[in-house]
Design brief:
Order of helices and strands: HEEEHEEH
Distance between the termini: 25 Å
CATH architecture: 2-Layer Sandwich
Strand order of the largest sheet: 1-2-3-5-4
Number of domains: 1
Number of helices: 3
Shape: globular
Strand content: 15-25%
CATH topology: HIT family, subunit A
Number of strands: 5
Structural class: alpha+beta
Amino acid sequence: MADTIFTKIINGDIPCHRVYEDDKVLAFLDIGPLSPGHTLVIPKEPAETIDQLSDDAAAAVGRVLPRIARAVMSVTGAAGCNVLQNNGSIAHQEVQHVHFHVIPKSSPSDGLGIGWKSMELSGDVGAKLAEQIRAAL
């Protein structure tokens, strides 16, 4: 994996506003926030996408995410938050290092806006797809 801006932040080569750090996870304020308190949570393990992340690193991030969300919402007074994670450029990932956005929302116009173009899932197609995913696990 190539060095990214997040690798440089982890290594201390680029400063950040750290809000949490342990041996496996770093959380810091986004420098281009969608709302006040927008925080990034990243594993220190180098992995471009979540499917490349080890179970151990994923568990460490999962343990920290709720704590960060609670703290961000408490400090900002937000009524809710979005937790966003993109994988691959086709999915709008801009930094090729696994990261989660915690984006507080105090009003419908704050933070992240989402368009959701849903599809229908038929019983036969759903059953076959679920079977294939179970087999891949």
